[in-house]
């Protein structure tokens, strides 16, 4: 059994890691840290875990963490970078669900995250954990940077179009809608049910931290600069991301059937990316609680614009599920281990 | 007092008309028809109206309707066109909330609505009731076609950009999100709470009936053809539409401050269109239950793409409220009469 | 025009007061205080009020408040009692929406609210503002204690049964369900949408602050002690309270038809209490945004237990609407002034 | 592998059976019937099952069903009773999730379900599938009647109190709240999101079909008649039942600590009933998607009334999960097989 620790076990990505890992046949979660809840049983705070999780929250301590083979950071940005180096030095694999190691450029990171990076030298070692692009590198790294939720949905939707240079790279549009669990489990007025229920809004149109992350990812594939308009929205539900992606075909003669085939071929061996039949529209509920990404392709009214619909559960494929998928790869397990669940419908 | 009838009083636009009209100081709703509920008190079906509506549902009869000065059709498509001619002949003003008189071309209408138009000769008499464009004509007509909910939010958002030819007309994108009340009050699995709650999806990407309506409206303003991609989505809330609109500025040198000023000037005398300060993001709840449209303008990252956010309540400015606004104009009342309400927050 | 101030204008009861008062024909809201938002326009924080509220938030200052004829306290418990005496001394009427003046016994108050009462001498002057019981006294007071939301729904439901001694006073049960806006507009994890959405729970079963308030009210009517089990629940919606009340008829021979008649007679002159036909079930949406209480009476299976269903909007009849109703009485205005609205359905 | 059929695979209990059974290691679902969707792939209707269910909907045919070892009926009431006899005759085990075999008295059944029972002779063979009461009989039967959702939550909550004769049997109260999926997946206005969202109501107070089912169950345990007031409510969420149960202790001297201990002992060997620590309040989300029932006990203010809070997921422990639990028992499998999942939080 792989001994695993979760640092920051009281946020939604932390408890979602627990939901998955307590049933993972190869993992034993032995350490779950939380400064605020230290000393309490995990299942006292999260009664959904009663009977399946016999651990107390502890304060994070290096020695305790270093006894594990893998440490997940489900912490606010700026925490993982303070501990990663010491853990790696003690041969512990680090899987960071925060943004600390997602950027290749620490100056850019500082600009968007508002702090100095604590270990810029480590950045080059980190692998960006989108298995559909980086599977080989993921298997070989000890420092894994889990992608953000929006970046996962957007990159998987654009990927085949970018790889095949089918669309105008200078004018991509990603209109993306997220459930409110993306805002995290922290006390804030803006995420109250009275504020977010029964209402819909865009936010951060002038610039969201996931914009440079998406751009970096797509540019890595395109091998050239891309121009992306990214508009995130908050939708009155708890889980789920729906990305509606727009690109202009370079050749208006391109046939949507060919694009459909292209997507199907690109993802035919991917366990967690599912290209739907043409003409369909994925609901976010199709993937609620599961690690799947469902994608559908449209070309409305025969125009030169291709519309891609891409849905994930922000807490699973957009966070904890993808982290476990990466862990499976890093430990040479079956990539689906612990992740074969059916979405909760209705 | 203006005697008013509502044909089709058991749908959401019908009951919303009642919500507004029972408090309208110049209107007396004397006839409310419903084939299914005929004989019952209106407030037995809609207890929210108890004490304010002393009318029974009746089956629609021409003579009873013709005793009114205005007849609102809150019916499924294809009903108003069967009665409009006779009512007009008896000097009754007709305000149609369905789509029967929205199109200028009855062939196009038949294509999208799947039936022959019953009175194509009347179409040219009908005025499209978007007061922000057609106020003068509205005041003079007896046959008013109320705009659809999506078309209202989208046209008001694009209008100043089109009128001033600021953007590339060939590549407009409208990514629009609607609450589920837009699906109407009819028995259908797809609108059950278990189907629509806690989930988000796009639908009708290949072509929605509101697409040609929006195109017709914008082309009327542009005096040339326009190319529009329109993607409607269903969001898990009851009321509200949020349109996220994308256009490419013809001159990338155009300053967002100028665009902001342009919007403010365009709508400065409009009672129900409110341009928000730059950098803000309207929530649909800001207009829940009110006849307002709130608009904000963005130019993300200094790109050449302008992003317009436009929100309305689909049942008010997108249907019943706009119908009453049109009625006020047609009867030379204060345009705001009966419509001065505050949105319900939270 | 009555000059009114709202102390604590950024909570939900404060903004709900604004929603009602900006359209009240006899009131001019001239002061709205908020320590956190002082200096900002009210409609910058609450865009639903744009065009209707031309006031800035200020810090609370006695002199500014004393220039008003009435001051509403929409503050956390423990604030109104610090200012009430000085305001009353300057001939300002005080309407307190918090709990400071609801109890007749300051020791009991201290026990439940965890602080010393700052002005126990004032308590005897305060009138408990449930107009259906205390209308005469309300008209004569300058210090009005608005009832809590749960107590309003529960007392109105039990009142005719208690007044007529129809049920066993020693074993009343109130199983009550509230929307989440009752938790207020403050940053707290427990009221996040991710915590409260799609879930239902009871809370404070061992003792909720509204229990002694209800008991005091009912005992005042009964003229004897009563035994009440009060179980509050949180339901995943924003507005609304539904009280399900259980009492055992003293004479099992009592006929439900007589009970129905009794309720109808008791409330026949009440503007805001509406007894529904027998056999019906009020939805909370029937009163969403309105000041009404709707009540239905049942006697299941001919048993000796009467079941009363009582619904209100917790922010209107349960808070701000009732406060305005009381203000109307205190200023000898029509009791319905500013409160004639239709609930928002759907 | 056990070959299983699901008759009525397009309702919520049917698709929930599929969600569980496609991952059950000992079961192979070979037949899924639906008259309306026959000929289509199951995962075309339910995309959440893509990759896990390679079956088409078929029309129900006896021969095809009889090739299975077990047939689940997830049908409307009145269907299972038409096929059960023939299936039993061919040595197929029948697990009925509808109400057809829940009552011991076919006259009573006819009264509540409005039709003649098609096979009253079979009723005595049927075992009521609440394992916590009937485990031994369940293991031996071939005809299993799955309990209703409300009856499961209510009986498990009252059981220890009844078995130990702690409360007054003549005056039990069950105030129960259900999510809307309990209304099923059929086209009906009353279950639209616009009708059920953001609102709360009681229904069927005069008598709900689950009342006699609960009474029969509790009387079987009590060995005497009981008097129960059962008030069901609809709460604006999809899944979950919360029962709030009230009983008067026969000896007011009874200590809540003893009652707590009693519950813990009663359920200590039950895999799916979890007694929470004293003073806690279970959220329905604690069991969303899982087969657990969580129970908490309270004695408010030291009164002689015990309050039991009992939560389940209506589609799992209240339907499909309990059906699989029963199947496991009937086939001598581990009772938890296929049911070890963690509730979806948030």
Description:
4 copies of one chain form a homotetramer. The first copy, chain A, has 11 helices and 14 strands. The first copy, chain A, has helices spanning 12-21, 42-45, 62-66, 80-89, 106-113, 131-140, 149-163, 193-196, 210-222, 256-266, 316-330; strands at 2-7, 27-33, 57-58, 70-73, 93-96, 127-128, 143-145, 172-178, 201-202, 228-234, 241-248, 273-275, 293-298, 305-312. In chain A, the strands form 2 sheets. A 7-stranded parallel beta sheet of chain A has the order 3-2-1-4-5-7-6, with helices on both faces. In chain A, helix 1 links the parallel strand 1 (2-7) and strand 2 (27-33). In chain A, helix 1 (12-21) crosses helix 11 (316-330), helix 6 (131-140) packs parallel to helix 11 (316-330) and helix 7 (149-163) packs parallel to helix 9. Chain B binds chain D through residues 12, 180-181, 183, 185-189, 191-198, 236-238, and chain D through 12, 180-181, 183, 185-189, 191-198, 236-238.
- H/E topology pattern of chain A: EHEHEHEHEHEHEHEHEHEEHEEEH
How far the N terminus sits from the C terminus of chain A, by CA atoms, comes to 34 Å
Question: What structural category arises from helix and sheet content of chain A?
Answer: alpha/beta
Q: How many β strands of chain A by DSSP?
A: 14
| CATH architecture annotation of the largest domain in chain A | 2-Layer Sandwich
Under CATH, the topology of the largest domain in chain A is which? Dihydrodipicolinate Reductase, domain 2
Task: Tell me roughly what share of residues is in helical segments of chain A.
Answer: 25-40%
